[in-house]
Prior knowledge:
Blueprint: E1 2-8, E2 13-19, E3 25-29, H1 35-45, E4 48-53, H2 59-62, H3 65-72, E5 76-77, H4 84-88, H5 90-97, E6 116-119, E7 122-128, E8 137-141, E9 146-150, E10 153-154, E11 157-158, H6 168-179, E12 187-190, E13 196-197, H7 198-204
Parallel strand pairs: 3-4, 4-5, 9-12
Antiparallel strand pairs: 1-2, 2-3, 6-7, 7-8, 8-9, 10-11, 12-13
Amino acid sequence: xxxxxxxxxPFQQNATIIWCDETMQGAIxxxxxxxxxxxxxxxxxxxxxxxxxxxxxxxxxxxxxxxIADKLTLPIEGPHKGDQFWLDIxxxxxxxxxxxxxxxxxxxxxxxxxxxxxxxNETLNVYFCPGHTPGHVIFYHEKSxxxxxxxxxxxxxxxxxxxxxxxxxxxxxxxxxxxxPLGDDVKFIPGHGPxxxxxxxxxxxxxxxxxx
Length: 212
């Protein structure tokens, strides 16, 4: 499986194009905006998009979802049904955070802990990791030891929990019980900022490191 990270919107949210080498079928994880730019990247890579995947329903991660789904007639998978709350107030998010043109969407498949999603011949495992939002999920590709963690974990930090329905203790528990067991050598793509490894975060993260 290959990937390319495209930071989009003034929030510099990491939209990630992933694809299967064998079939050249792909998906975009968290298409937050700048739809034409994302689709141009897909075309340049020679990928056929087959679905859109969402870690959670905050507008900076999901603002371009419906436009792309409409343009290419793609199914939307994710997040967990706990994020119905954020979908219900999607228009308020658009206004509050300044995302003109972002449109509310309806998912075609809510994801649960233990589910899998497929992209070409590749399989991603789904882990339910609430706390930043009540319905946050992460996607893990075991063969390449790569996790797309959205706003659960960042290099040197963790997701905010001061938004409605956020919960700090729940987020910490999700990181320690869902992410760390995957292994220290797992590389992760956060929702914002540079990639890291779980091992480095366990050594040095001031919120969830082993010494905390």
